Amino acid sequence: MSIFDKFKRGLQKTRDFVTESFNRIAANLGYFDEDMLDELEMVLVQADCGIECATELTDSIREHIKNTGDSSVETVLDVLRAGMLDILKDVQPLKLDPNRLNILLMVGVNGTGKTTTCGKLAKRYRDQGKRVLMAAADTFRAAAIEQIKVWGERTSTAVIAHKTGSDPSAVVFDAIDAAKARNTDVLIIDTAGRLHTKQNLMDELAKIRRIIGREAPDANLETLLVIDATTGQNAIVQANAFAEATDVTGLIITKLDGNAKGGVALAVVKETNLPVKLAGLGESVDDLQDFDSENFVDSLLPDPESLK
Ligand SMILES: Nc1nc2c(ncn2[C@@H]2O[C@H](COP(=O)(O)OP(=O)(O)OP(=O)(O)O)[C@@H](O)[C@H]2O)c(=O)[nH]1
Ligand SMILES: [Mg+2]
Fold first, then answer.
1. 128 plus 261 within the same structural domain
2. What tens digit of pLDDT does each residue of 132-175 get?
3. Ranges assigned E (strand) in the chain
């Protein structure tokens, strides 16, 4: 399956919603008037693009219509597409540095898909022939260590783990030690889900970061905030809080396949200016893709052929 097909399959619910809305609003007319543009703005809000984004996108359509007099459905769709691509212009895929240890630190609130994404990434890099190690630095939940070990078995990746309740920074310390000894290419660190409002948990994350800075100062560190697309606009609040507490270098947006709210990627990028690096498009090990703006936008918006 091509990458475009994977995005299309994952974002089908959002695309169906947007396509139906386009057809409902502009049915039989073939053009957009002011009221219809207001409706389109609401559709974008419902697809979770965020009010700011939705306003910016529809304003640029209004501007275009004013300048050209062309309000055809095809043109509106083209301008909308260009506006979305502009918001996502700084997206960059996750790159490993081949000459040093790469550390991927996964952070985020509970249940966003951190552990699953660790497993998917381990699979990706194992398939590329890299030396991969995982660290079970979620010592908070009893089942968490077991869960990452299962992913370790599934992907033939070694997992450094301590007991439940132990200090996650100590796990990270040992994992870095092991990574150096084993000449590891990629160390993937799973951490506990934490509410961005709980200061002690955010402090724990800062401690993990200090350990990495001290023990692996030369490593290429990516702190990846995992965001669940189905949490809606709360994702923005989380992203801002995490970005403040730790130097987040990129976003991973998971569960884009989950509902018709795929637009949240636009809202989060607009609000945080952080690059989206990866997209989670399903629960299986291969359902992780480099975030690709063109594929994303083309999967979110109606296929011009499907417009009545
Ligand atoms: N549909 C879908 N489900 C996903 C995706 N990524 C993760 N999940 C599911 O989301 C649920 C939670 O995933 P975990 O990986 O355990 O999340 P976590 O962030 O590690 O959770 P905590 O450790 O409790 O904070 C699981 O049922 C996963 O299968 C995705 O991209 N799409
Ligand atoms: Mg987890």
1. yes
2. 999 999 998 889 999 999 999 999 999 999 999 999 999 999 99
3. 102-107, 132-137, 158-160, 186-191, 220-228, 250-254, 276-280, 288-290
Pairing of strands 158-160, 132-137: parallel
Domain range for 199: 102-291
Domain assignment present for 96: no
For ligand 1, mutation pick of 12, 259, 283 (most atoms within 8 Å of CB): 283
Q: How far is the CA of 234 from the centre of ligand 1 (A)?
A: 17
The answer to whether residue 97 sits within a structural domain is no
pLDDT at 233: 83
Q: Is the dihedral of CA 181, 182, 183, 185 positive or negative?
A: negative
Q: How does pLDDT run across 77-129, given as a tens digit for each residue?
A: 999 999 999 999 888 889 999 999 999 999 999 999 999 999 999 999 999 99
Give the model's pLDDT for residue 240. 87
206 part of a folded domain: yes
